[in-house]
From TrEMBL:
Top-level class of the enzyme under EC nomenclature: isomerase
The reaction(s) this protein catalyses: ATP + H2O = ADP + phosphate + H(+)
GO terms of biological process kind: DNA replication, synthesis of primer
Protein name: Replicative DNA helicase
Organism of derivation: Sulfurimonas gotlandica (strain DSM 19862 / JCM 16533 / GD1)
Family annotation (InterPro entries): DNA_heli_DnaB-like_N_sf, DNA_helicase_DnaB, DNA_helicase_DnaB-like_C, DNA_helicase_DnaB-like_N, DNA_helicase_N/primase_C, P-loop_NTPase
Alphabetized NCBIfam families for the sequence: DnaB, PRK08506.1
Length: 482
């Protein structure tokens, strides 16, 4: 049984090979982790090697001994056994064997954890399943967690981050591309682990806005997971095809297109057939189900860089708590999921109708439905606002009132094919708030960048509490359903 869980001889050979050929440690330190070793003394030695690497010091017997003495974990007998072991040339086979046994130990530990939460703590089955799935995901992804990171580790990681940013040529884009140049400048993109909320009143175009981002990403070959709780997947695809081909959405819906437009559509279909877009349009989903699906999908397709939920308030709660408590659990769950999977999670949100009673109907943070927890958990909150939506609505109300009074109505409203739009950055944990001007092309349900100068920035509201250092010949539409 024990032989199936560890091999001390293999562990000594790996450590001996590093001591005698330190130049291979860079590669090995990525392939194997400290807790993959079974013997605590071997873990300490490997940990000392990592510390020496971070300090840019020699990884040899004397420096390892010095580092272990410093932390009072030097075992001379263990060191002698390692130095006596024969160095190996084919380290990969040994590493694979050590990691296989490490995985078995972790799975054995997980079985004990399952028994504890199921029998001893008597947790509901849904919570048990969520715990098990999370642990399994961590094991399969080889995630290493610890209670604390020490200063040398943090400074080393920070310098690696700065060097990576410098290698990009001082690009303003650090996170995931939003698809809009000026918004990228304001946000540096959606960061890894960020919870991004995109909120608006109905008909403002929040789904159209995020689909522009989705289209930009899949055209770059990046993966996107989209949970559509309100709209069937085929309708999402129609909107994406309209964005790509500049064919009005209504023409796509009825198939009323010219020969050139059919040709353009077929070309777009060919591109979408190879797109890394995964859509779940189940419509009824709670936070546990979403977590389970996204973890599985991310495990199968590591190229996925962003997840989108349309929209947050439609998600089902767990249990019979008040709705605001359920929404709190959902928003917190999405934030923790973003951090766990190290990718931005974008959730669309509705706004309270109370704002429409104000003269200035531009949204504020307090306008988000069940806003308390959402506002707290979100790293970035964006509002989509188009003044023409209200101008058109007011015109219709005046027309109705005039007809009721038997008066002649002369319309003063001129409907435009392109309308001015604003993306209001209501909160940004690591950057400025402000306004970004876009143009909304109604027939295409497409947002595009306005002139570069059309931007207002407010730097007084920077939150420094947190910092995150990253149909013709084709009669069917191909889309992967999850």
């Amino acid at each position: 049984m024990q032989d199936n869980l560890y091999n001390l001889s293999f562990e000594r050979s790996i450590l001996s090979s590093i001591v005698f050929e330190p130049q291979q440690f860079d590669e090995l330190s990525v392939a194997i982790k400290k807790d993959d070793f079974y013997l605590p003394a071997h873990q300490d030695i490997f940990g000392a090697m990592i510390t020496l690497l971070q300090k840019d010091q020699p990884i040899d017997e004397e420096f390892i001994k010095k580092e272990l003495i410093k932390i009072k974990k030097f075992d001379e007998q263990v060191m002698i056994e390692i130095l006596s072991a024969n160095p190996i040339s084919n380290t990969k086979a040994y590493v694979d064997e050590i990691k296989d046994k490490s995985l078995k130990r972790k799975l054995l530990t997980l079985t004990t954890e399952i028994k504890r939460v199921t029998v001893e703590e008597e947790l509901p089955s849904a919570e048990v399943v969520d715990i098990v799935e999370k642990k399994l995901y961590e094991i399969t992804q080889d995630n290493q967690t610890s209670d604390f990171k020490d200063s040398p580790k943090m400074t080393f990681d920070t310098m690696e981050y700065i060097r990576e940013m410098k290698a990009r040529g001082n690009s303003v884009l650090v996170g995931v591309d939003t698809g809009f140049h000026e918004l990228n400048k304001m946000t540096t993109g959606f960061g890894k682990g960020d919870l991004v909320i995109i909120a608006a009143r109905p008909a403002m175009g929040k789904t159209s806005f995020i689909l522009n981002t989705v289209n930009s990403l899949i055209m770059q070959g990046k993966g996107v997971a989209f949970f559509s709780l309100e709209m069937p997947a085929e309708q999402l695809m129609l909107r994406l095809l309209s964005i790509q081909t500049s064919i009005p959405l209504q023409k796509l819906r009825v198939g009323d297109m010219s020969d050139d437009q059919w040709s353009s559509l077929n070309g777009a279909i060919d591109k979408m057939n190879s797109a890394k877009l995964f859509v779940d349009d189940q419509g009824s989903l709670n936070i546990n189900q979403l977590r389970s699906k996204l973890r599985k999908l991310k495990n199968q397709h590591p190229e996925i860089e962003i997840a989108v939920i349309d929209y947050l308030q439609i998600m089902q709660g767990i249990g019979n708590q008040d709705r605001h408590i359920q929404v709190s659990e959902i928003s917190r769950g999405l934030k923790m999921l973003a951090r766990e999977l190290e990718m931005p999670v974008v959730a669309l949100s509705q706004l309270n109708r109370g704002l429409e009673a104000r003269n200035d109907k531009r949204p504020m943070l307090s306008d988000i439905r069940e806003s308390g927890s959402i506002e707290q958990d979100a790293d970035i909150i964006l509002f989509v606002y188009r003044d023409d939506v209200y101008l058109y609505k007011e015109e219709k109300e005046r027309e109705k009132a005039a007809k009721n009074d038997g008066k002649e109505f002369i319309s003063e409203y001129v409907e435009k094919e392109e309308e001015e739009a604003e993306i209001i950055i209501g909160k940004q944990r690591n950057g400025p708030t402000g306004h970004v001007k876009l143009v909304f092309q109604k027939k295409l349900t497409r947002f595009v960048d306005a002139q570069p100068k059309a931007i207002e920035t407010t730097y007084e509201h920077i939150d420094t509490r947190s910092a995150n250092i990253d149909v013709g010949s084709n009669d069917s539409i191909s889309m992967t359903m999850i």
